Amino acid sequence: MGLNRKLVLTLMMLAALSGCSLLEVKLESGIEPLPKAQLNMRVFSRDFSQTFYSEVERSADQIAQLTTGAEQVPMSSAAISLKSNTLMWKINSEQALQRTIFQASPVAAMVDTWVLNAQMTEYFSTGAGKALFGLQQSIAIDASQRLLHNFERTIQGFVTPEEFKKYQAFIQQHVTENPLTDISFSRRSAFNDWLAFRNINEFEAVTTFGTVPEVMSDISDRMAMIAEQMPKILGWKAELYALHSNINADEIQKTLSSISDTSARFQQLMAESPELMATLAVDLRQELSPLLTQLSESTDDKLAQLSIERQALEVMVKNERLALEDMVARERVAAAANLDEISKNTVEVVFQELTKTLKSLILYFVLFLTLVFFAPLGLGVWLGKRMALKQANKAVMS
After folding, report:
1. Phi, psi of 131, deg, nearest 5
2. Do 51 and 192 fall within a single domain?
3. Could you give the CA distance from residue 177 to residue 193 in angstroms, rounded to a whole number?
4. Where does the signal peptide begin and end (predicted)?
5. CA-CA-CA-CA torsion for 242, 244, 250, 255, nearest 10 degrees?
6. Range of the domain at 109
7. Which pLDDT tens digit goes with each residue over 147-175?
């Protein structure tokens, strides 16, 4: 009973201490949303991609139609080369654009997309691809310039005029130093050069990837664009492969005819020589029977061995489970004993400290009573004696 009373008192004291606690736990996600300007840049880059795809595909198809429309089958080597260039323009430029707009930072995506358009314009106008499409080169030049002007006209709504001039100066410098060299559109990201141009630390360039809904929206956009563009790109690659392969329709037709003739002769042989087919079937059965028997016996042996191993595994698992249960039971008993001992020691320590505290309180209370009651009484007695002594002195003198 005494121990139970001590436990109750201890719990009451702990509850009082917890009620008086001034601690406060605060959980914060620590996720910063993207600034509004960067969100607008991301939306603009994704919208621009559709304009880019449609403009490149329309212009490339127009060049291919004007180049190969009057050609007879088979096409000449020059027509095949121009047709191949139009396919590679669509494949490589659209894959390059996907790599630029799907960067983690909206600013990086915007800068790199701008650089890609400027590089493509320079490549078709005065660069290594200025004669890629022959007489139809102007179609590619006009399409690239329209895309670049469209991008620059729209980006002016997101940045100040001063910022736009800084961006434009960097784009021109970077394109001059890093031009496209071939139709593969092999290039590196311009964002690091942009950071160096603006004297921005690369560790401070990207401070947040956005909230969870913003990240999920970004992933959804990526998956949707990949699902939309992948079939077209695969179709263009297949067309490019077929264009440069040595297989033609006549060869395919001859191969199919040969297969059909062989099948017809085999069917005719089966119809004209049923005895030969029956003999062949008997021979096959005789040859395959020992093999099937051996396979069956081997399979039975493996199944029996597997059954034995499974039984052994079950026994081992059962033994391990029993051993684990015994260990858990022993640990539970030991933990209960330790818990009782810890509780007993805790109660004893608490009451020892409580006794010391009560003794200190009693001492302070006695001192308080002494100061409050006995000190004024002693002071009054002392003052009375002084006054009586003064009166006696006055009587003697008079």
Report:
1. -125, 25
2. yes
3. 11
4. 1-23
5. -70
6. 36-247
7. 999 999 988 877 888 888 888 899 999 99
